[in-house]
Amino acid sequence: MGVHVTRLLRIWSREPSSLIMVIIAPLAYLFIMVKLFGALAESLTGHFDANAGVILVVFSWTFILAVTGTGQVYEERLHGFHDRLQTMPSRYVVVLLARAIGEFLRIFVMCIVVTAVADLCTSSSVLTDAPLKAVFVFVLVFLAAGAFGTYVGFSITSSQGSVVFMPLIMVMMFINTALLPASMYRPGLAAIARNAPITAASQALSGSAILPIIFWCGGIFVVCLAGLVALSRRRQRGVVGA
């Protein structure tokens, strides 16, 4: 497994696009969130919670990273790389888990950079207020996103297959109570905003509720892990049958 994880990290370290997606783009998103949406939230409600803004950036960009990495998996599958991996003595599920770990590490780097810069340059204090709680919540989110991105990457049948998930991420970014209270939404959207995953993450870090984020991330992780195991067994049977 270590060999596969190292291979992924080596590939990402050599790609300028990885640097842009992991470091530059989320920092630009953070700037837009604080300066533009933060000012909008303050004008509408009289208050802007910088911690909630950072949580929104980290959570949503975590899943954006996970989804954008699926194209690389599809290209490797298309060129037969994973067909060769299936003939190796180790189980194919090791390759899937290594990919999930690699995604976890890439997302972890993004989170540390964004939260550190936010704590230094804004009024945010995500890491300094309750560091252990922040690490716990972020690890839950990273595990869910890593498993999600890996499952999507190994199950799509075209390079555009992952694009269908981007609208869901956009909805998740804008319909939540991290920046605006539920009363600011229409009745139908207010219920969604109260129970959105970013709302759950914000509640967990503020100390108001921890179970919603556990249910959200745990559910995503378990479903995607079960899907990865099923994919591995199906591919392994195909190799043995051949």
From TrEMBL:
<feature type="transmembrane region" description="Helical">
    <location>
        <begin position="20"/>
        <end position="40"/>
    </location>
</feature>
<feature type="transmembrane region" description="Helical">
    <location>
        <begin position="52"/>
        <end position="71"/>
    </location>
</feature>
<protein>
    <submittedName>
        <fullName>ABC transporter</fullName>
    </submittedName>
</protein>
<keyword id="KW-0812">Transmembrane</keyword>
<feature type="transmembrane region" description="Helical">
    <location>
        <begin position="92"/>
        <end position="118"/>
    </location>
</feature>
<dbReference type="InterPro" id="IPR000412">
    <property type="entry name" value="ABC_2_transport"/>
</dbReference>
<dbReference type="Pfam" id="PF01061">
    <property type="entry name" value="ABC2_membrane"/>
</dbReference>
<feature type="transmembrane region" description="Helical">
    <location>
        <begin position="205"/>
        <end position="231"/>
    </location>
</feature>
<feature type="transmembrane region" description="Helical">
    <location>
        <begin position="130"/>
        <end position="152"/>
    </location>
</feature>
<dbReference type="InterPro" id="IPR013525">
    <property type="entry name" value="ABC2_TM"/>
</dbReference>
<feature type="transmembrane region" description="Helical">
    <location>
        <begin position="164"/>
        <end position="185"/>
    </location>
</feature>
<dbReference type="GO" id="GO:0140359">
    <property type="term" value="F:ABC-type transporter activity"/>
</dbReference>
<keyword id="KW-1133">Transmembrane helix</keyword>
<dbReference type="GO" id="GO:0043190">
    <property type="term" value="C:ATP-binding cassette (ABC) transporter complex"/>
</dbReference>
<feature type="domain" description="ABC-2 type transporter transmembrane">
    <location>
        <begin position="6"/>
        <end position="206"/>
    </location>
</feature>
<keyword id="KW-0046">Antibiotic resistance</keyword>
<keyword id="KW-0472">Membrane</keyword>
<dbReference type="GO" id="GO:0046677">
    <property type="term" value="P:response to antibiotic"/>
</dbReference>
